[in-house]
Amino acid sequence: MGQPFKIDARDGQARAGVLRCAHGDVRTPAFVPLASNASVRGLLPGEVAELGYDMVLGNTFHLFITPGADYVAAAGGLHRFMGWDGPIVTDSGGFQVFSMGHGSVADEIKGRRDGRRSMVHEISEDGVRFQSYTDGGERFMGPETSMQVQAKLGSDIALAFDECTPFHADRTYTMRAMERTHRWLDRCIAWHGEHAPASQLLYGIVQGGVHEDLRRESTDYVAQAAVDGIAIGGSLGQGKEQMREVVGWALRGLPDERPRHLLGIGDVDDILHAVAAGIDSFDCATPTRLARHGTALVPDPTRRWRLDLTKGASAGSDEPIATGCPCPACRSHTRGYLHYLARHDELTGARLITLHNLTFMAELMAGLRAAITAGALAAYTDKVLAGEAPDSASDSCAQLAGHNCPNELQAVRTSACCRAGTARCRRSAAGRCRGRRARRRCRRHRRRAARARRPRSPSGPRAAAGTGPSGGCARCA
RNA sequence: GCGGACGUAGCUCAGCUGGUAGAGCUCUCGGUUGUGGUCCGAGCGGUCGCGGGUUCGAGUCCCGUCGUUCGCC
Prior knowledge:
8-stranded parallel sheet, 16 strands, 44% helix
């Protein structure tokens, strides 16, 4: 097939273009909302399109488990099934298999926690045997399975089946998994070439964890492969600095003319950096998942672009989430109302905040496309990083002093970077308080001290015996 | 009126034969980047209904009292 990706404008490494798919064009850089289970949770397909999205992401793994590829195929394919007639990219299921093996994806991929009970029974050259989360039965998925499911779903873009290695995997395991993923890629290409609809594009996935040489090797391998686009996956490290470094390694040597997708990334600052580095599309759970849990995206870098509406601060507020935002939540409703809805798990709240967050992301991406076209990406990036609403790309750049300073970036993400330090500080301040029992004991001591300080009737037999730290108690003495 | 059961954190309740008051939920604060309408941390919060008594020591045993509830007159 011809070259599906056309780059219309460049600004540094960044590109703005159009990805031509069987069901229409995708304007890039693009954010792709998640519709893992054939639904952008809470929204109608028409609403997603109206917000300015060209493509959504379905998930091979989820749809394979339920309702099954044949069920969707019998309904006329994923587009007709879910009522979305625009482009769809389907994730291959490799990541989900990985996440089942390690409990929490988010924690494990960042190296924050050890793996838990695994639902993965075996990873072999053939593929992965795992336990279904719905009925507990054993299932199998390999490169051919994934490709076949994606062919039956009829997505516009299929992703190759990969193994996403966790942060804690050692270099040897990461390397072997990467090499196996490369062999799986060849099998995906072979199956896809023979059986998949000609119009379906195929992306290869770069792995290699946080190791520079492995990332380069993987990039080279995927770059020489007969794929229509390249996705960057796997563990991108523990923090944003490391992620940017790893993405940089993965991008080096990629063919310029093919589209690049960064899997699973969606924080505002991460998108700004990745677009500047040459990424064309993103998918991420954050905007929609945060919305369902009551957090709205706002133009405020000091709060990591987040406003938790469930917090008391929004109670009774008559402000909108963001002044000037054109979304239904901001046009017609107050933070106070959304606070109430979110507190009580009202579906309307999840829906309104989802509409808002996707509006925010759509404006961010539209602004990026316009800025690249106008050759003003740096100015636009600076404005967004300075906390201005992400929809104005044409104005000149007001340089934000020190926004690139690593320390300031670190301050922005205090939780991610400084949390360990804070915990350490607390513990060392408490001296002996290491471990749960010790901490509890300390709390008790604090309570006892507080109780002793509290004025208490000195008369009565208990007071006489019980006030001192060890008064009369044989065990304490 | 008589008899029984029960009063412990904001809520629902654990606390064995007396030995430094606990859990779950709520609440507050963090976190949650290829989505399980989640999940993971931490924190705040108790005059153990009230008053006596026994004991070195009482949520726990004894007496009284108030309240809730069930049953019987």
